[in-house]
Amino acid sequence: MKKTGRVFAINLLLILVIVILLGVGYVWFIAGPSRAYDKQDELYVLEFLEGEDYDEARMVSRFSFDTVYYILEVKENDFPSLVWFDHTFERSGVHDNVGFEPVFELADKYGVDRESISFGVYEDKLVYVLRRKDMFEIFVSVDTLEIVLHIGGVY
């Protein structure tokens, strides 16, 4: 009986050590870098907005293809629009505020979840990005709803 209690205590201690190591590993390797990227994104957005005169702004997405782009939803004089810029501030653009509804039919056609639709920038134009995990990405022009680039497997 004494031996069983001792083995149980050792096992419990080992489980506690494993849980602590997993928690430290998560904070060190996963949550830490994620917070650093979030902070870096926030600094880019704030720097971009310093020279602008928008009433409101919120980041819609961060897109990385040939470079890193930030897409913001902004309001100026109660008129909402989408603004995008790259991390070097050399390229930027403004587009009327559009939702994802126009591309839902195309997303359904290719089996892309509506939650997997985002905005991106391709050839200095705003595009919808339809992403089907581990299979393909399709860039669709926001203006014409035509596929401008397909990356990955067969669609």
In short:
The protein has 155 residues and is an alpha+beta fold. The chain has helices at 2-50, 104-109, and strands at residues 56-64, 68-76, 79-86, 92-96, 117-122, 125-132, 136-141, 147-152. Helix content is 35%, strand content 37%.
Strand order of the largest sheet: 1-2-3-4
Q: Give the oligomeric state.
A: single chain
Q: Outline, from the CA principal axes? A: elongated
Structural class: alpha+beta
User: Radius of gyration, Cα only, in angstroms?
Assistant: 23 Å
In helices, the fraction of residues equals: 25-40%
Low-confidence segments, ≥5 residues, pLDDT <50?
A: none
Question: How would you describe this structure to a colleague?
Answer:
The chain is an alpha+beta fold and 155 residues long. 35% of the residues lie in helices and 37% in strands. The chain contains two helices and eight strands, in the order αββββαββββ. It has helices at residues 2-50, 104-109, and strands at 56-64, 68-76, 79-86, 92-96, 117-122, 125-132, 136-141, 147-152. The protein has a four-stranded antiparallel β-sheet with strand order 1-2-3-4, with helices on one face. Strands 5-6-7-8 form a four-stranded antiparallel β-sheet, with no helix packed on it. A hairpin with a 2-residue loop joins strand 2 and strand 3. The mean pLDDT is 84.
